[in-house]
Amino acid sequence: MQGREFAWTDADFDRVQALIYKRAGISLHDGKHAMVYSRLSRRLRDTGHQSFKEYLSWLESTDGAEWQEFVNALTTNLTSFFRERHHFEIFAELLKARPSHPWRVWCSAASTGEEPYSIVMTALESLGSRANFSLSASDIDSKVLATASAGVYRAESMKGVSPAQAHQFFLRGKGANSGMVRVKPELTRLVDFLIVNLIKNDWPFKEQFDVVFCRNVMIYFDAATQRGVLERIHRVMKPGGILFVGHAENFTDSRDLFTLKGKTAYERV
């Protein structure tokens, strides 16, 4: 294609496909050429490489920080507060049924933080301020996790948050910070943000979880990778625990691990 800053061949795309699959389990389909070029060309500029071939050869020869930048560039982070709201309604009912239980929850695709903070708001509303509750919020992308742990958002991103929740859980920016909101410390202190690669066997968790949110992640994995991730999730969950997945995800092939309990909610077998 004319007008491109860097030469970009099918062979370059094939290499990127293989590298991101090996590193993060992400299956990039062939329609992603333009997206990959656009996102990775920034990495070429930042690292001073003149071609994709040169950049990818350099990347393969190192185990340094650029791998994280490579993964960050190719992961997609679509999120919002209380996305797929029915999950939070089911979650609230679970919590209210066992108000004194020490709840351990994992949000495995924290992105920029809207989902983990939606989980914590639901917990505090359901269990009260003295809730025995902790949330591990992970992602493979270090940049979005930095945004999540800062907990600062544009006011217009708060569409899913009710006025009562906005008042209870957020601080409004003034002056130079007008139009911004910050999550209150009572939410952030309940969340542990950490980098976790779902396809690796090095998950750091010592105790099992009651509830896992793994929503709209598996759509980027092929069937074999999905199965491996589900087996690992199964191992870190308590029997009878609930797994929430995205609306486009279906795990009926893994009935030995999880059985469907409600709309895109599964119970650990």
Provide a descriptive summary of the structure in words:
By secondary structure, this protein is of the alpha/beta class. It has ten helices and ten strands. Helix 1 runs parallel beside helix 3 (52-60) and helix 5 runs parallel beside helix 6. The longest helix is centred in the N-terminal third of the chain and has 15 residues, at 10-24. The chain is globular.
Number of domains: 2
- The radius of gyration over CA amounts to 20 Å
- State which percent range the strand residues make up: 15-25%
State the fourth-level CATH superfamily of the largest domain: Vaccinia Virus protein VP39
Say how many strands there are.
Answer: 10
Q: Mean pLDDT, as a whole number?
A: 94
Spatially, the strands of the biggest sheet line up as 6-2-1-7-8-10-9
C-alpha end-to-end distance:
51 Å
* Gross geometry: globular
Counted by DSSP, the helix tally is 10
CATH class assignment of the largest domain: Alpha Beta
Q: What is the percent of helical residues?
A: 40-55%
Write the layout of secondary structure elements.
Elements: H1 10-24, H2 33-47, H3 52-60, H4 66-74, H5 85-97, E1 103-107, H6 114-127, E2 133-139, H7 142-150, E3 152-154, H8 163-169, E4 170-172, E5 180-183, H9 185-188, E6 191-195, E7 209-214, H10 223-235, E8 237-245, E9 258-262, E10 265-268
Parallel strand pairs: 1-2, 1-7, 2-6, 7-8
Antiparallel strand pairs: 3-5, 4-5, 8-10, 9-10
Structure summarized in a few sentences:
It contains 10 helices and 10 strands. The protein has 269 residues and is an alpha/beta fold. Strands 6-2-1-7-8-10-9 form a 7-stranded mixed sheet. A 3-stranded antiparallel sheet has the order 3-5-4.
